Amino acid sequence: MPSLQNLAGNWGASDPPLQWPYQTTPAEPDRHACRNCGKTFAYSYNMVRHRRQCEGTFHLVCGVCGKKFHRRDVYAVHLNTVHGLQDDKRRSRADTGDE
Predict the structure, then answer these.
(1) Which residues does 83 contact at the CB level (< 8 Å), separation at least 6?
(2) How far apart are CA 28 and CA 14, in angstroms?
(3) Residue 49: φ, ψ to 5°
(4) Cβ contact 87:72 at 8 Å
(5) Could you tell me the CA-to-CA distances from 88 to 61, 63, 92 in Å, in that order?
(6) 37 φ/ψ angles, rounded to the nearest 5 degrees
(7) How many other C-beta atoms are found inside a 10 Å radius of the C-beta of residue 41?
(8) DSSP letter (8 states) at residue 66
(9) Are 66 and 56 in contact, with CB atoms under 8 Å apart?
(10) Three-state DSSP string of 77-97
(11) How far is CA 12 from the centre of its chain?
(12) Which intervals of the chain form a coiled coil (predicted)?
């Protein structure tokens, strides 16, 4: 049976460190720009999230108090802290049995 050292190879101090398989820094930083204010983002999903707020687009409305939200995570926190409820989509993922 091969030893762990043989499986790992002969890595020295000059070898690059192991990295997560996904690139965490963008190859082309700040390539996505908001069409309203010009602010740039490395990732498109950050720009889309920003643009909703910049344009004043609200795609979520609290059914209890009518407050509007740009982001689902903020809406879910509001439901839980203010009204003591769970977001329906999060609740349906958490339910495992009774229907």
Answers:
(1) 62, 64, 65
(2) 27
(3) -60, -45
(4) yes
(5) 13, 11, 6
(6) -115, -10
(7) 19
(8) -
(9) no
(10) HHHHHHHCCCCHHHHHHHCCC
(11) 36
(12) none
Query: pLDDT tens digits for the chain (99 residues)?
Result: 544 444 445 545 555 555 555 555 555 666 889 988 989 998 888 998 899 888 888 889 999 999 999 888 999 999 999 999 887 665 544 444 444
Tokens read off for 3: 């030893």
Scanning the chain, the segments in alpha helix (DSSP H) are: 4-8, 44-55, 72-83, 88-94
Bridge partners (DSSP) of residue 40 are 33
What DSSP character marks residue 18?
Answer: P
Q: How far is CA 93 from CA 17, 24, 73, 90, 96, in A?
A: 38, 28, 15, 5, 8
